[in-house]
Backbone:
C-alpha cells in the first residue's frame, strides 16, 4: 500500500514502513505500478501528483473525525484519526496541538514553530541570532542569544503542557523528536498521519 501526504512544500510517501519526501519539481514516476492513496492540503501539488501518476485515490472523505472544530486540515484529521485518546503535537513550521478523548476530537491550538520564531527575530538586527536549542530552561539566561532561545522554547513547551495536563503526548513532524524530550509521558511517531490513512482504508474496505 503506497500512501502520500501532500503538503505545501513536500510530498511525503509511505510504503512498507519506509518514509521519504519529494518536491513537486522532482516528483518521481517510479511508482506508477501502484495505486497511490493520498490526502492533500495543497491543490496545486495535488494536481502535480495526478499529472505524474495515473492510479491515485484521494481518501480524505473516508477520514471522518467526530469533531465540531471548523477548518481542521486533513493532515491533522488523519493524525487524530489514528488515536482513540491522547494529545497529538505536530511540530513543523507551525505547531498544532490536538486533543483526542475516546475517539472524539475535543479541539486544538496552533503555535508558531521554532523556525517561525527564527523568522520573527530576523527583522530585528540585534536579535538576528542563531537559536541555542540546548539552552538551560531552569535558570534565567545571561546573554541575548540564550534569552531569545529560552523565550521561544519555553513558550512552546509551556503552551503544550497547559493543554496536555497529565495526558500522554504523541509527537510528530520535523521538530517533534526534539520537543518530545521535554515531556516524560510522550513518544515520537512520524507515522501518525499514515496510520490514520491506513485505518480509514481498512475500515472502509477501499483497497
Residues:
Amino acid at each position: 500500500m503506497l500512501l502520500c501526504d501532500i503538503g505545501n512544500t513536500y510530498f511525503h510517501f509511505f510504503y512498507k514502513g519506509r518514509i521519504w519526501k519529494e518536491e513537486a519539481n522532482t516528483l518521481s514516476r517510479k511508482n506508477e505500478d501502484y495505486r497511490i492513496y493520498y490526502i492533500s492540503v495543497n491543490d496545486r501539488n495535488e494536481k502535480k501528483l495526478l499529472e505524474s501518476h495515473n492510479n491515485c485515490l484521494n481518501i480524505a472523505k473516508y477520514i471522518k473525525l467526530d469533531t465540531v472544530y471548523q477548518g481542521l486540515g486533513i493532515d491533522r484529521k488523519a493524525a487524530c484519526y489514528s488515536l482513540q485518546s491522547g494529545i497529538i503535537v505536530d511540530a513543523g513550521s507551525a505547531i498544532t496541538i490536538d486533543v483526542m478523548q475516546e475517539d472524539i476530537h475535543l479541539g486544538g491550538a496552533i503555535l508558531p514553530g521554532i523556525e517561525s520564531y527564527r523568522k520573527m527575530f530576523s527583522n530585528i538586527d540585534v536579535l538576528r541570532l542563531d537559536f541555542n536549542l540546548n539552552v538551560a530552561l531552569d535558570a534565567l539566561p545571561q546573554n541575548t542569544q540564550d534569552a531569545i532561545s529560552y523565550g521561544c522554547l519555553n513558550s512552546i513547551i509551556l503552551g503544550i503542557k497547559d493543554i496536555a495536563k497529565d495526558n500522554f503526548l504523541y509527537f510528530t513532524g520535523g521538530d517533534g523528536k526534539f520537543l518530545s524530550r521535554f515531556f516524560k509521558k510522550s513518544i515520537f511517531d512520524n507515522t501518525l498521519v499514515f496510520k490514520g490513512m491506513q485505518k480509514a482504508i481498512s475500515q472502509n474496505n477501499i483497497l
